[in-house]
Each structure stands twice: as structure tokens, then as C-alpha cells.
Amino acid sequence: EAGVTQFPSHSVIEKGQTVTLRCDPISGHDNLYWYRRVMGKEIKFLLHFVKESKQDESGMPNNRFLAERTGGTYSTLKVQPAELEDSGVYFCASSQVSTGELFFGEGSRLTVL
Amino acid sequence: AQSVAQPEDQVNVAEGNPLTVKCTYSVSGNPYLFWYVQYPNRGLQFLLKYITGDNLVKGSYGFEAEFNKSQTSFHLKKPSALVSDSALYFCAVSDFGTGGFKTIFGAGTRLFVKA
Lengths: 113, 115
What we know:
The complex is a heterodimer of chains A (113) and B (115).
Chain A: E1 5-7, E2 10-13, E3 19-24, E4 31-37, E5 43-50, E6 53-56, E7 65-68, E8 75-79, E9 88-95, E10 103-104, E11 108-112
Chain B: E1 3-5, E2 10-14, E3 19-21, E4 24-26, E5 32-38, E6 44-50, E7 56-58, E8 64-68, E9 73-78, E10 87-97, E11 100-105, E12 109-114
Parallel strand pairs in B: 2-12
Antiparallel strand pairs in B: 1-4, 3-9, 5-6, 5-10, 7-8, 8-9, 10-11, 10-12
């Protein structure tokens, strides 16, 4: 069974540019989550999808971040325009039930110069 | 509001010795508690969880954790550390809020096991 996959693994962009991160969850997992870890701090919750619906987006930093999950399969997280403080590792995770364990991808490291 | 604290940035232990990685939490209701491990250049992997029942839960790779409700703690333990246990460990708590169940994580504790 394929795990959670994320693309790209590493992205380096300049301030003001746009980046789109992609996450393919484990097949059949309705719950999909985005998290971000910045410079050794806690892994911060961004948002939670149940199928194609946003269940909770309370952790999204501002309107420069846009997450979608069309069709309830893969998800994208777009940052536009990127700022220096957006640098970090963006993790995607999926789960069968919201109370269960999360299965994580390897993360997408974003560096904004 | 939910919160998770891992008071130690790093824990150093000699191989063969017991290890403890500390975690305390704050939630409004009954918590679901988790430990995850991250090896270099990998995603987080689930180790164990507590939902209800016996306060001592056993997980992968010989790890266990003890739930202490009065101290709101969920410390990770292993009787005999291995060099291969060296990794980054994250404590997490899930709680039910206005947006449904949400899992939040601590800042992580780096475990270094010396041969």
C-alpha cells in the first residue's frame, strides 16, 4: 500500500513568488491534514479536510495560503505571494478516522529567499 | 485551548540505559494522546496512543508511555535504549473542538543514544 506522498520535497523561491505543494493521501483516507514546522518549533496545525470539505482551517496563517482538495483525493497548498516567514517544512497527513493515528508524508521543505 | 509541552529539547542516554521523554498537555475534555517519531529525512511515524483503559500503553520498537491524569502527563519510556532509537520524538494530543477533532503537536525532543 502506497503511503502519503508529497511533492516537491524541496522548493527554493524568492519572496513574492508563488509555490504550490501537493499531497497524495493514502487511498481511502477521507481525512487529510496540513501542518507546518518552522525552525525547530512545534508542528503547527494548518487545516483539516474531510473528503473535499474544509473541516477546520483555523490554523491557516493568512489569505496568502489557499488549500484545495478537489474530488476529495489529492490536495494542494498554494502560497501566493510567498514571504520570508513562510519558510519551513510543510507536512501532509491522512487518516481513516479523525480520532486515529495520522500517516505522514516526508514533508515539503520550502525556502523563501 | 489545547496545548502540548515537551520541556526538553534534547535527551541524552547511554545505550542499554532506560530512557524517558517527557510530555505534558492541556485539553478541555478527555484527551487522545499520541507519540510519533521522526527519523532523518522521513515523515513522522506513529509509535503509540492512549484513548482509554490501562494507563500504561505499549507501542512499536519496545516503547511504552504512561498516562497520568492528575499530572496531565504522557511520558514516553523504554527500558533499554538502542543507538537506533536516536531520532526526534513528538508528543501529540487530539481533542474535540468547534472544527471537529484536531491533533496538535509539541515542539519535539531529540533523543541521542550514545554507544
